[in-house]
């Protein structure tokens, strides 16, 4: 019996080829206009996503790889002794574009059953950052009010209350996670009513006496607060929020997006990478050695962390602001790591330009942010994304309040299959 993975191994190359051809021949073809109604209408109808598995026709409804629901009912194997379509056969169709045999469906059912027990590490999720934020939805005022029945014009006030409560709790929540993971058995001190949010956060982390770090955290968190709506974390919060999910659930979803190495994880990746560079090259490093190291990274098929951006085409002003923070402090200027970051900045854009792939050879904010945290004693770099998560709440939750205040609709762009795009551009 050909397994699901083997089947995918067979079908993926053709799709990859199809995409490559489309990109090579039609990248500049226009497939539609963007109207104001798309922008304020949750991207309704906007053909802006690639999605191959299903197409939704307004009149005839959904088709999965061209098969209508009655078609699926006819051809997809049911459970033994059953008649209805089962998840395994549907998943097989969605993933591979092919109808599975009965034996293949059974094999997949067995695989699910064999892998379905919960692993012990799941207990640790109690202390997971994103789950903890989601769990606070237990207290969502918006959700409670919505269940009771409120007018649409009142949505934003309850949403705002939730957002403020959430932001207020983020320091304690994020600090608890830090202590549980890195300083087990230490209790959180009480919040100081006379301190700002991040001053308290720093104290809760155990760095209340470390004024430099507290100041840096203030700047870092303010600068990372918002970065337009389309970045992965903000967009995720907006998308989930557009279903009228409460702010806790919406923002927890954003945190999962932030956990990816191309997004919020990048600052810890930078630190890891710069440390490896330092370990290999030592502290007295020349520009040429760094160049060589950059090429080694690129030739190894890896991205240079902290460089490039989805939108920016110049050095990130947040990077510049953090560099200026460093430039104003002798202890940072003397740090060999901060010097290495600076030297890397002096050569990396040239190397990336020569490499010729990235549209933006300049540093983004992450090129330096984690290295300063490390210098000031917050050395557990797996934690850095959590700090980013405390920060991004500011922008993402602002937008949730406004989405409710403006009565923005469910987000729903139009996706197209590869075949459909080819038809449009021919
Ligand atoms: N090093 C090497 N190659 C890079 C690169 C880098 N820093 N940045 C982009 N490229 C490559 C891409 O991988 C892509 O290659 P491919 O054609 O083989 O897939 C090509 O250049 C074109 O990419 P792009 O259009 O310039 O970038 P993008 O919009 O697809 O991605 C980003 C943007 C940030 C994910 C990418 O630049 C990257 O991976 N950078 C390194 C990770 C990083 O610093 N992320 C932090 C971003 C800020 C944040 O969210 N915190």
UniProtKB/TrEMBL annotation:
GO terms for molecular function: acyltransferase activity, acyl groups converted into alkyl on transfer. It is found in: Mitochondrion. Keywords: Mitochondrion, Transferase, Transit peptide. One of its GO terms (biological process) is tricarboxylic acid cycle. It comes from the Eukaryota. Its main location: mitochondrion. SUPFAM superfamilies: Citrate synthase. One of its GO terms (cellular component) is mitochondrial matrix. Belongs to the citrate synthase family. This is Citrate synthase.
